[in-house]
Structures are given as C-alpha cells and as structure tokens.
Amino acid sequence: MKVVVSCINFIRAKGLKHRQFQEFLSELESAHEDVLYYTEVRWLSRGRVLRRFYELLPEINAFLHSKDKTVPELIDPEWKWHLAFLTDVTEMLNSLNLQLQGRGKLICDMYSHIKAFEVKLALLLEQVKKHNFIHLPATHNLSAENPAVPFPAEKCVEALEMLKAQFGVRFRELHVNAKEIRLFQNPFVADIDEAQPSYQFELAELQNCDVLKDAFKPNSLIDFYAALPNDTYPNIKKHAMKMSTLFGSTYICEQTFSRMKLLKTQMRSRLTDEHLHHCLRLAVTRMEPDIQLLTSQMQAHSSH
C-alpha cells in the first residue's frame, strides 16, 4: 500500500504533474481519466484506490518512467500478484463494510453479514490453496495474462489465515451471544428447550399464536416487538429492547456530519451550540411530526 500511495502522491502532489498525467491518459485513450487519492480516515477509499491503480498500472509506470522516476515494484511480477490479490480482498472487505453501514441495521442483520463473510473467507482460503481464483477477478485476470509467472500462494494463504483469525477475535462476542441474537431475530423458530427458563413459557405462548405469526413477517422487528402485550411477554420484550440497542451507528454518524456541514454555512450570522443541537436532532430523526395537529393546539395570538 505504501508504494501505491507514494506513486499517487507523486502524480497528484503538484498541479502540473497532475494535469500532465491526465493528458497522458487522454492520449492513450485510457478507460480512466485519473487516479484516486487515498485517504486514511475514509477506509472505503482503499478498495477504490487499489482498483483504479491496478487498472492503470501500465500507464502509471510509463508516466513515471517519462519523469525519470523509477519504482522497481511496478515491474516486479510477484509484487503485481500481491497488488491484484490485495485489490480483490480489499473490495470484498469494502462490500462487507457497506453492508454493515446501512440504515437501520440491527445486531441480527450485522451478525448475518459477518457469518456469511466468514463462510466466504473459508471457501476462498481453500480455493486459493488450489490456485483457483474464480472469486478473485483481478488475480484471475493476471493469472490468465501471465501464466508462466508463479503465484505466491504461501504468502497469500497466510494473509487470508490472518484475516480469518482476526475476524474470529474481533467478532467473538457475536458468536458467544449467537443464541440470544437468533432468539431476537426470529422467536418463532427458537428452540424452547435451549432457551433460558425465563423465556420458555413466553416462547411457548408466542409460537402457538397464529395472529402474532401473521403479524411477524410484514412488520419490522422493532414494530413487531413494540406491539407485543407487556403482560403476556414481559421477558421477551425486555430481551428485544436490549438487542435493539445493539445497532450500527456508522450511518447515523455519517448522516449527522453531513447535515452539520450543510448547517454550518457562511450565510448564517449566528449559530449557537444549543441551536445546532436542535437542528441536528430535527435533521436526522425519523419521526414525522403532525404539524397540523400541533398548530391546532396552539393559540395564534395571545388574548388581550
């Protein structure tokens, strides 16, 4: 990644070189018009930067050569293997990252995505050991273009094993609480015998209620649990409240910062912290106030 960032910074650091590179790509009728900047803070940029850099590798190497800058890694066959492999794996991680960042993601949704990725990772590990790159497009293309160049299987397999181990460590608590998550996700298929004693009678009542079964599928989990009678299912509702507080906050944070950027404009003459707080609450909330009802309860002019 250091080589990629170094080359991109060399091209884009000065306006003249940047314009010359864009003109160079235009003359070659390249599919892309520019390289992308890499930003450490925005992790998703890594996959896009690597993909663009890999696709423009011949053009970048030729441009750097014209500027008397030699980067030996760009012509190293083994380094190209690593670049292609890193590009594919990073794009997989980007896809997972986007799945986890969606709006209204509950713990059960995120756990499903994590489990699916771990299965994909295990499958990919076995396939890479056999030099099967069917799910790695950049690596597969490089293999077809340079069949004589040996694939560094040992290092790539080691990288996948490290990634798999990291997932096991970082998401260990999800697997430990898998039964609790599955109970929250679908209480109608939960095993009553394996459930905690405080849930067993309530689950028996719930799983044999046809009305609630019909109401489960069309409604969201939050709406379904909110509609459950408190007297009949107190423990299941308490469990649902605990599980519903475990949600992905990335979307809310990104949305809040975007709204704050729009609110803090030069057109405002004054913006206090309290005013900004109220504006942000209104901007990011999903509640829709009934304006007509609120105004009907207010007196337009005070009586004299």
From TrEMBL:
Source lineage: Eukaryota, Metazoa, Chordata, Craniata, Vertebrata
Domain of life according to the entry: Eukaryota
Name of the protein: General transcription factor II-I repeat domain-containing protein 2B
Alphabetized SUPFAM superfamilies for the sequence: Ribonuclease H-like
